[in-house]
Amino acid sequence: MSVERFSIGFGSDPQSAAVRVHSLAPGAESVADDVRAIVADVREHGDGALRRYVERFDAADHYMRVAPDAQAAALDALDPAVRAGLEVAIANVRAVAEADLGVDVDVALPQGQTVKLRDVPVARAAVYVPGGRAPYPSTVVMGVVTARAAGVDEVVVCAPQAHPVILAACALCGADAVFAMGGAHAVAALAYGTETVPRADVIVGPGNLYVQEAKRLVSGDVGIDGFAGPSDVVVLASAGADPRLVSLDLAAQAEHGEGTIVCAVSSEPELLDVIDLDPGDAAAALVDAPDLEAALEFAEAFAPEHLELVGSAAEALAPRVRNAGCLFVGRESATAFGDYIAGSNHTLPTGGAARFASQLGVRHFRRRMSEVRIGPAATALARAAAPLARAEGFEVHAASMEVRENGPR
Fold this sequence. Notes:
The protein is an alpha/beta fold. The chain is built from 16 helices and 14 strands.
């Protein structure tokens, strides 16, 4: 695809410019009806339906839970340099994830009761690792290590074709089981369980349109991390930014292929003039801003999955950034480091969802639960709450509280 270039301030405000850049990526076809039928079939018929879809879509005559010795063998055969890189990534992702863990909090209230806010992990999580153009062991790290750091009891991985490097990564990260299958049928099996596949409490990870639509469909019955669309990056560059590095970072993100959006925005037109980029199948844009304020407004409106700030004036904007999946500050902070080894998670909100969604973290695998102990406070609380219950038409609610006013009888 060609590189689009346009300006903010000439009939286009930052918000409109962001919408325009988002629209450069082709719209996805609707697969909702197909996915709905697949999910319903697997939910109703279990392994019987799952087997048919695996044979049809995964080009396999069977699906299986990969044997632990297959994971061990894959790890033994893994290129030592790849293993070393994975081990660094695992340690960094674990350290960042553990830093995000919540703590239990006891709150003592004036009437005498206590409420403990407990931070508890789910029992079982599933990490979906897409097949795509190549195996993605980094996605195993981002999902499994974060779930482990969250304290999840059992972590399973679903990976179409179960490439040896995926199996090796699963062994390094401590996955409890690997299922060699993918697609909407795999998501349905994880969400509802079959005779072979255990039901998960949370499903995370990227995937194609069928996978994401399946996650959307089952999200009322199982926790999900979000709906991961095509990748994107915005590089906000000021004077002093190296156009060679900007070009390289845009091209690196363009490797994700069709649907990806890569964009540079700057108030320095001569910098944009020398950006050298062949985006391949990705959509690409260079945006001229009248000043850095407008450039920042554009980036905030776009809410990119990845936002790079390069050049000293751009880097100084970092504390003001609110809407980005992950923020990369400074010349050396290439998005690619975040994809693999920086310690931040590469499963990020896309399609502008960084306005309200977060990167994959321990919070996706944990939930807050209140533990309430009323004790002698029942008398004061019942007198205060019973009129409220009756005002809402709940007479038995009121009675349930009032009977406890004077303690045990």
